[in-house]
Amino acid sequence: MKPFKVENVTFGDGNLAFILGPCVVENEQHALYMAQEINDICRHVGVQFVYKSSFDKANRSSIESFRGGGMEFGLEILAKVKEEIGVPVITDVHESWQVEKVAEVADMIQIPAFLCRQTDLLVASAKTGKAVNVKKGQFLAPWDAKNIVEKLQQAGSEKILLTERGASFGYNNLVVDMRSFPVMRSFGVPVVFDVTHSLQLPGGLGKATGGQAEYIEHFARAGVACGVDAVFMEVHDNPKIAPSDGPNQLPLSRLEKLLRKLKAIHELVNEN
């Protein structure tokens, strides 16, 4: 596996990196607060992270659901996070025309799970030269993700991440197949475990997605023990009032304790 760096964050090469932040960009004050708090915690623990937040949640359950303030609004705030807090940022793209604009701000580009097979979107993202993180669709087997890697590589991408975020398991439920981590790592790219989205209950609240945040620590520990290269978790200071994905976001108050445990597990797994 060929490791790569995004600013000061190393993916692969025996490192355990993190992708952390609130689900959606709510406002400038909240984004700067969350980025500073997460950055302080990661410094105390001694781990590297990329700040994640979406400018648009294009696949919400209901037309009534909050989507975000839009691309211009979100990118302006993410640019301030980079400048003022000094951390790299990642955000989603949903259509090919968005990629070039997003790449002007984001250090990494993320492809949502439902769009992981959209060739034009993958190719456009690869051509920016930025690292590309692809969420494996809930409908894909882990071995099918090799086609995603090949599409990106043929378009010139050398910085690729594959993310496991659970597979559809009947109605309104997901399950994580732990075999997916070694299978996808065998493609020669670092693998991320999206813990919080794996605990979603899609459409479980009728017009919104439910979640089981009480199991975040259990899932995270299991994924790191399986040898993932990075852990993705959406984090919020008050998930009860979060406008998107509140039921499955990790409360900020639980982050530092969990990161310390994950760091210890990773060190144990990687002992010679």
| End-to-end Cα distance | 18 Å
Could you tell me the CATH topology label.
Answer: TIM Barrel
Q: What is the CATH-assigned architecture?
A: Alpha-Beta Barrel
Order of H and E elements: EEEHEHEHEHEHEEEHEHEEHEEH
Q: Regions with pLDDT < 50 over 5+ consecutive residues?
A: none
Average pLDDT metric: 94
- Please state the CA-atom Rg, rounded to the nearest Å: 17 Å
Shape: globular
Question: What features would you describe in this structure?
Answer:
This protein has 272 residues and is an alpha/beta fold. It has a single domain, classed as Alpha-Beta Barrel (TIM Barrel), CATH 3.20.20.70. The chain is 34% helix and 20% strand. The chain contains nine helices and 15 strands. An eight-stranded parallel barrel has the order 3-4-5-6-7-8-11-14, surrounded by six helices. It has a two-stranded antiparallel ribbon with strand order 1-2. A two-stranded antiparallel ribbon has the order 9-10. Helix 1 crosses helix 2, helix 3 runs parallel beside helix 4 and helix 4 crosses helix 5. The longest helix has 18 residues. The radius of gyration is 17 Å and the shape is globular. It starts with a strand and ends with a helix.
